[in-house]
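Minutes, project huddle
Topic: does the predicted pose make sense with glutamic acid bound?
PN asked that the exact inputs be recorded in the minutes so nobody has to dig through chat later. Recorded below.
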Amino acid sequence: MNTPVVTRIAPSPTGYMHIGTARTALFNWLYARGRGGKFLLRIEDTDRERSTPEATAAILRGMEWLGLDIDGEAVSQFERADRHAEVAHKLLSEGKAYRCFASQDEIAAFREQARAEGKSTLYHSPWRDADESTFPDAPYVVRIKAPREGTTVIRDQVQGDVTIKNETLDDMILLRSDGTPVYMLAVVVDDYDMGITHVIRGDDHLNNAARQMLIYQAMGWPLPVYAHIPLIFGPDGKKLSKRHGATGVEEYQLMGYPASGMRNYLARLGWSHGDDEFFTDAQAQEWFDLGGIGRSPSRFDFKKLGNICGQQIAATEDAALLHELQEFLAAAGQATLDDIKKSLFTDAMPHLKERAKTYGELIEKAHFIMSSRPIVCDEKAAKSLDAVSRGILKELTPHLRNVSWERTELEQCLNTFAEEQGTKFGKLAAPLRAALAGRAATPSVFDMMLVIGRDESIARIEDAAA
Ligand code: GLU
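Predicted holo structure (C-alpha cells), as shared on screen:
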C-alpha cells in the first residue's frame, strides 16, 4: 500500500501573506486533498526578530478566507527548538557532525585570504577530524560532516534531476554557539516529524534542498518527494512585487475577489490541465498533479483573474453568494445587509451575479435595490436624463399602470411604446436605467422593474421625469 500523502505550507510570519505563499499553499492543499491525504501548516517563526504574532494571524486569516483547511493545529517551529537540537546532538554522538571551535574572526580571515589568492572561499574546518583531547574550553558550533566527493542529486518533480557537486557544499552549521538550531536543520526535523511525504515549495528553496538532503541522509531518514515550483512574475516578466499591484492575499479579499475565483486562478498560475481554465474545487483536486506544473515562471494576469472570478461568481448558488457577500462586507468594514436588503438581494441575485468580477461590482449593480427614492443619479446617468428623455418617461408611466407585470408583457409594452415614439427600446434604456437606479451600468431594465415592482418603478420614473 502506498504511504498516505502529507503536505504542508511553511510560511515565515514576517509580514502579510504573500500571494505566492497562497499559491504554494493551494498546490499543497490540492495535492493532499485530491489524494485523501493530509495538509499541515507550520509557522516558521525561528527568526524571533522578524516573526510577529500579527503576521501569524494574517496567515491564518488568509488560509481561512481562501478555504484552505488544514489538518490539526498549526505547528510552531520555534517551540520545537529542543527537538531540533536533540537531532544535532544525535548526529554529534554518531560522528556525523562535529564541534567546530573556529571563531568568526578566523573564518573571516580564511575567506579573505582565499579571495586574495583566487581560491574557493568554502570553509573547511580543521576541527572536522580533530581529536577530542585537543578541544579547547571555548564556545563551538556544531557542523554536519558533509561529503566532500561525489554528487547530490535532487530528483525534483518539476525541475527534473538537479545535480550538485558535493565539493561545493560546506559543512553547514546545525547548532550555533549559543546552542540554538539553524533554520535548515529545523525544516528537516520538522518535515520528518510531521511525516511530510511531499515538499512542494518555491524554487527559491531549490539550493536548500541539497543541503537539507544531507541531514536526511545522515539521520537515515527517507527523503520526501521534492517539487520546486517557479515563482510568480508580474505581467512584465519580473518577480511579482508591489510595483505590479497587490501582492498581499488580504488585499485581494478587500478588493472583493471571491475566494473560489482566487483558488481557480491561482491553481492555473503555473499549473495546467489541458485547456481547462474554469473549474470547480472538486475538479482541481481530482486533476492536480505535479506533472502539470510548468518549469517557467508564470505571469500574474489581472484581467484573467477578473474573468475567472466573474465566472465563479456567476456559478455560485444565490444563497451561498449572499453569505459570501456578507462576509466581504464585514471584512471590508462595511455595514452588512439587514433582513430587508437581504430579501431584496435574494430576489435580484440571478440578475446581479452575471458579469460581476468582484463583490464590489456586484454591490454596484445592486445599487437599484440598495438605494431608495429619490434616486440620486451619478454623473454618467444624469447625462441621459435630458429634457427630451424626461418627456418620454412622462408619457411612459400610464402604459406601465395597465400592463401585467411580467417579463414578456413588459418587453412588449416598452417596445411598442418606443415604436410609437419613433425610436427603439435601446434609446429608452439609458434614461430608464438612470431613473430606476441612478446608474449607467445596471442589470437589465426589465429585471430591475420586476424586482422592485410596479409601484416603486413608476414612482422612480415619475421622480426622474419631474
Ligand atoms: N519558510 C519558508 C518560506 O516562507 C518555506 C520553507 C519551506 O517550504 O521549506 O519561504
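Observations noted during the meeting:
- Residues 10-12, 44, 187, 201, 205 surround glutamic acid (CB under 6 Å).
- The first strand starts at residue 6 and ends at 9.
No decisions taken; revisit at the next huddle.
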